[in-house]
Amino acid sequence: MTDDADLQPVVAAEFLALADRLASASESEWESPSLCEGWRVRDVIAHLTMAARYSEEQFMAELKRCDFDFTRLSNEIAHRDAELPVAELVANLRADTMHHWIPPGGGYHGALNHVAIHGLDVTVPLGVPRCSTDGTMRVVLDDLTQGGGHAHFGIDIQGRSLHARDLDWSYGSGPALRGAAEDLVLMMCGRKVGVGRVEGSPLGRSGPGQTA
Hints:
The protein is of the alpha+beta class. It has 2 domains: 1-110, no CATH class; 133-212, Nonspecific Lipid-transfer Protein, Chain A. The chain is 48% helix and 8% strand. The chain is built from 10 helices and 6 strands. The strands form 2 sheets. It has a 4-stranded mixed β-sheet with strand order 3-2-4-5. A hairpin with a 4-residue loop joins strand 2 and strand 3 (169-172). Helix 1 packs antiparallel against helix 6 and helix 3 (41-48) runs antiparallel to helix 8.
């Protein structure tokens, strides 16, 4: 598995690539539904860039206001800050704060997974190529499988094998699930993928899971 300290430049590159991709998006594209249920593209980006706008003290004050319910906090801030100008949201993606941000206990692996997965949440429904490099996708796939990240999303991969059609990557043994790397990532994160995009039975669930 890639050393955590080596991933900071990769995290920065992911944020910048997503900013470049969305800088020219139309207003209707920003208003489009994302793969996160109930969130538009702009809601996802507002959620993804929280750390660019809130200090740790401000974040904790918001969390306390929400009775320490992180799901409630995520939804409220996503919907509220989504109304910021698009230019400000894009600037947040370019902010140095985001390029060095790490989630509590997650390190740069956690940060990379966060930006790559939410990047897919917006690029896939917009019908544009993923921003993540092949190298990033391998790291995310490894983190979701051997790193156990799938459990966070309530997905069960035990007794299954996964094979990426567009990368030299596979995992596990058992009945196969084959698809593009981005589709395997999305399925392990509990997202829906288009009909015919994967070959094999869908992955089962082990619990309710999270989407943010």
